[in-house]
Design goal:
The complex is a heterodimer of chains A (about 500) and B (about 250). Chain A is about 75% helix and about 0% strand. By secondary structure, chain A is an all-alpha fold. In chain A, helix 15 runs antiparallel to helix 17. The longest helix of chain A is centred in the middle third of the chain and has 60 residues. Chain B contains 9 helices and 10 strands. In chain B, strands 6-7-8-3-9-10 form a 6-stranded mixed β-sheet, sandwiched between helices. In chain B, strands 2-1-4-5 form a 4-stranded antiparallel β-sheet, covered by helices on one side. Chain B is about 40% helix and about 25% strand. Chain B has about 250 residues and is of the alpha/beta class. The longest helix of chain B is centred in the C-terminal third of the chain and has 16 residues. In chain B, about 50% of the residues are buried. Classes of the chains: A mainly alpha (about 500), B alpha/beta (about 250). The interface between A and B is large, with 36 and 42 residues.
């Protein structure tokens, strides 16, 4: 048994908390839900293995170690995965400093803050690795099954990537603490994390749009320019890709680098953990003055009062804006595509319509959660002399208003080039927004706005329904914009999703 | 206080609410206009559940609730127009300033802007919030947040104010300010119903005290009435309360 407050004792404590969080996330404390979650996991694993077989089976026996296009493709995939891992790790590292759950207890105890920090960073790295392994496992398993044990090396690469991402996230967060101070670090780190998570995908798409007129991110990776400028086959640049392909020397080097970087960053930065955590704890008491109230109280309808409140709260919360920024960032390639299409006059705008509809649906889901479930004064609103239906209507109007504000300019630009697709796009956006809002209405809970990040774990049914609904409306809009009657199919599916949600919604039962 | 000449501000008849077990059990309660009524009882006695049903946050399984003659279950909007609710956890928005919050609340209750603005200025002044009136509430202490919430409860000039443990976590100075404002409301003809665990507060401030246990009203009246009901020589409300609750537990 380990000594209290030792590294292994603290690690055991962290592991127990992490395990219970995960179990609670999957089962929500119910035995029936635990069984259902297990069945769902098995089904998803089987589906993912089939998908992996369909995607990578052809490469299982191929000798790709000397194939530059293949190495470019794999390296691109690794950079893409690493950017997502880094984004996730930055979120987790920031939370380690700002979350007050047990930090006050730990920092006021005689336990070493340095050890606590080391264990927490290791936990973040392990979480990143486990999450990546869960995503990569079906592909690696299929490759191992069809191509031999050399593909097991890919698991080692996942470990190295998780370690490097955590080390980089730690270095970036500490650098932000020193550069901008504790008050701004949280927001900036979260914005940076959102941008890092999206920038590589978006960058590749933008390059692809300008070079190949396509939204496919792999078009850029396989372009002549990219292949001409790729390093020599003997370059160390290819070691990560070679490691994935089963080159054990490259794997050993890459893994050693990753774990070494993590150990070094923990050793370097753990001394300042207590200091930064204490600085972070003082942030909540910061005072923000608003512009002097000059115009006085104004007469407004109840609906206007409620909508205005929602818009003001959102506008004044940069953290929430950063959380929704990801979805808006994904609109950048669409806007580029639109611009290129408008300039060259071809019909590629058909691609833009589903992207915009999908983005609107996803964004509406987040905004609807904030306005409908994320009410910080639920008792106040509920005890006001207004019919419940009027309150909900005002909140729905607030969501639609925000979506209109964001998407109307893009639809107008599209309309200047092609009126019919623009009308279909507007209709698709309205339907996807309404559906996402309706799903949030069915699954509304009482929560604080600060719990926004956890909204997707509060109801997995709502999250999946929202995603599939947006995808279906996006597909229907794309087909309708292309003039196909096939649009009816996904529209019916979307309506079916909504009907299913209504039937099984907790607010109805 | 002679209740015969006073209008009934709140009347509960046979109100019941059950969760896993009965929380409120066929409760009858009458509070008169211009009265300060304190509802006391042990943890889990049904105080908060009762008040949440009165303000429309919970629907009773049985019984009727009348506020100033309005059936709150059949016409909740009209009943809510007359009431204000203040819980122990201040319900305010971190990103709004106190003035913006008060304007929002006045908008919900559809108060004439000029009137609401004047009341907001008065309340902000009375509660000592003037220096912070244009700061966002996110940096406020618990006491300041509770003051903002109290101002919100009063800005629409409710006939009936219902407070659930409003003094929890407040320092002595802030608690005094809150009590002063509530006393002023009652002097001006308003009705205040308050739950509290601080029996001295109930003893000093309330015209009548209701003791609730197991979802039922087990005793009611002035401190003298409660002393008589216990049949003891209890000198304080605390003594009377403990005797009453002990009797209830023994009977159960």
């Amino acid at each position: 048994m380990s000594q209290p407050a030792s590294l292994t004792w603290l690690a055991g404590h962290e592991f127990r908390l992490g395990w219970r969080d995960w179990v609670s996330l999957m089962t929500a404390g119910g035995r029936t839900r635990a069984r259902n979650a297990l069945i769902a996991l098995i089904v998803i694993a089987i589906i993912l293995h089939f998908f992996a077989y369909w995607t990578v089976a052809a490469y299982a026996d191929a000798d790709l170690v000397s194939d530059i296009p293949a190495l470019v493709g794999i390296t691109g995939l690794l950079v893409l995965s690493s950017s997502l891992l880094l984004s996730q790790a930055m979120e987790s590292v920031t939370r380690a400093f700002y979350s007050r759950s047990d930090l006050d207890l730990i920092l006021t105890s005689p336990a070493s803050a340095r050890k606590v920090f080391a264990v927490r960073m290791a936990r973040i790295a392990v979480a990143a690795v486990v999450l990546s392994m869960l995503v990569a496992a079906p592909f690696i398993n299929v490759l191992v099954l069809l191509g031999g044990f050399r593909w097991f090396a890919a698991y080692g690469m996942v470990v190295a990537m998780g370690a490097v991402a955590t080390a980089a996230a730690l270095a970036l967060t500490i650098a932000l603490f020193r550069l901008v101070g504790a008050r701004r670090t949280r927001l900036i780190a979260q914005v940076v994390a959102a941008i890092i998570g999206a920038i590589f995908v978006i960058g590749l798409q933008i390059v692809a749009i300008f070079s190949a007129g396509s939204l496919s991110r792999f078009a850029a990776l396989q372009s002549d320019w990219m292949l001409r400028h790729a390093p020599q086959i003997s370059s160390a640049f290819w070691w990560p890709a070679r490691a994935v392909l089963g080159d054990y020397v490259a794997l050993a080097a890459v893994t050693a680098f990753g774990l070494g970087a993590l150990a070094l960053s923990i050793a370097l930065f753990s001394r300042r953990f207590g200091e930064h955590a204490v600085a972070a704890s003082g942030v909540s008491s910061a005072t923000v003055r608003q512009r002097r109230w000059t115009s006085g109280f104004r007469w407004r309808s109840v609906g206007h009062v409620l909508r205005q409140k929602e818009w003001t709260l959102l506008r004044r919360d940069p953290w929430l804006i950063s959380q929704t920024l990801m979805q808006i960032l994904y609109l950048v390639p669409s806007a580029m595509m639109l611009w290129v299409t408008f300039r060259t006059g071809n019909d590629a705008f058909i691609v833009v319509v589903p992207v915009m509809v999908m983005a609107a649906g996803q964004l509406a889901g987040g905004l609807a959660w904030l306005t409908i479930s994320g009410e910080d004064a639920p008792d106040l609103v509920a005890t006001a002399p207004i019919a419940g239906r009027r309150i909900l209507l005002a909140k729905v109007e607030a969501v639609i208003g925000m979506i209109s504000f964001i998407f109307a300019p893009l639809v107008v630009v599209l309309g200047l080039d092609a009126m019919a697709p623009a009308v279909i796009c507007a209709l698709g956006i309205l339907l996807a927004t309404s559906a996402a809002t309706a799903i949030q209405l069915c699954f509304r809970v009482q929560a604080r706005r600060s719990q926004f990040r956890r909204r997707q774990t509060s109801s997995r049914v709502a999250t999946f329904a929202e995603a599939f609904s947006s995808i279906s409306w996006a597909a229907a809009s794309a087909l309708a914009a292309a003039g196909s009657w096939g649009a009816i199919g996904p529209a019916v599916i979307a309506a079916g999703i909504l009907a299913g949600v209504w039937i099984f919604s907790p607010s109805r039962t | 206080m002679d209740h015969l000449n006073l209008p009934v501000a709140l009347a509960l008849r046979g109100v019941s609410k059950r969760f896993e077990r009965p929380a409120v059990d066929a409760l009858d309660l009458t509070v008169y206009g211009g009265e300060f009524y304190a509802l006391v009882g042990p943890n889990g006695a049904g105080k908060t559940t009762t008040l949440r049903m009165v303000v429309g946050l919970l629907r009773p399984d049985a019984g009727s609730i009348c506020i100033d003659g309005i059936d709150a279950l059949h016409d909740p909007v009209a009943a809510k127009q007359l009431t204000a609710w203040l819980s122990d956890e201040p319900m305010i928005y971190d990103k709004l300033t106190p003035y913006e919050y008060l304007e929002f609340v006045a908008g919900l209750w559809r108060i004439e802007p000029a009137i609401a603005e004047e009341r907001a200025r008065d309340l902000v002044g009375w509660l000592g919030l003037e220096p912070h009136a244009h700061e966002r509430c996110e940096g406020f202490s618990r006491g300041m947040r509770q003051k903002v919430a109290l101002a919100g409860a009063l800005v629409h000039d409710p006939k009936l104010i219902i407070l659930d443990e409003p003094l929890t976590g407040l320092d002595a100075g802030t608690a005094r300010q809150v009590k002063d404002v509530l006393r002023a409301r009652v002097r001006a003809g308003g009705t205040v119903i308050m739950t509290t665990h601080i029996l001295e507060v109930a003893e000093r401030m309330a015209d009548r005290i209701g003791v609730i246990a197991g979802g039922r009203l087990i005793a009611e009246g002035t401190l003298d009435d409660l002393r008589r009901q216990t049949g003891t020589t209890a000198t304080s409300l605390e003594d009377a309360f403990l005797t009453l609750v002990a009797e209830q537990v023994a009977a159960a």
